[in-house]
Design a protein that fits this description.
mainly beta; binds zinc ion; 31% strand; two-stranded antiparallel sheet; globular; five-stranded antiparallel beta sheet
Length: 153
């Protein structure tokens, strides 16, 4: 089993630009709360939070709080320096997480603080938070405890 631990992603100088459709997500993230956009008229989840519901064209959105219990839909392991200065972040794991109880939502995020060798598609993951720079809080995910001890080598 690959015992390397998934590190936190490198701090990159880009900043998060929000608008009326994304601001509620980031306001909640600053409080370390995960909220997901759901059509207030028909209940369809939509991510990214587009101005119009793809199912019914409504603009009304409910931002529903979620516990962050999800499944690892896809991931990759970055273990080479792509940007100068990111050596301390290797290896890190960009990932796509989906939520069985919020169909239609796939969140691009990172897997952190767990053995890389235990990762697999469909692994259950739990929400955690990272703060790469002060005041910039991002959702991230880690394997649930029962998954960490599963030696798949
Ligand atoms: Zn709708």
């Amino acid at each position: 089993m690959d015992a390397r631990i998934a590190r936190h992603p490198p701090v990159i100088g880009n900043r998060i630009v929000t608008d009326a459709w994304t601001e509620p997500f980031w306001e909640a993230a600053a409080r370390r709360e995960l909220v997901l956009p759901r059509c207030a008229d028909c209940g369809t989840y939509r991510m990214p939070p587009t101005p119009f519901c793809p199912a019914c064209r409504s603009q009304a959105i409910d931002w529903t709080r979620h516990d962050g219990c999800g499944m690892l839909y896809s991931y990759t392991i970055v273990d080479r320096v792509l940007i100068e200065g990111m050596e301390q972040s290797l290896p890190y794991v960009p990932a796509v997480v989906e939520f069985p109880d919020a169909q239609g939502i796939r969140l691009i995020s990172n897997i952190v603080d767990c053995p890389i060798g235990a990762l697999r598609v469909d692994a259950p993951v739990a929400l955690t938070w990272i703060e790469p720079t002060p005041g910039r809080v991002l959702p991230a995910f880690t394997l649930r405890p029962e998954e960490r001890e599963d030696d798949r080598s």
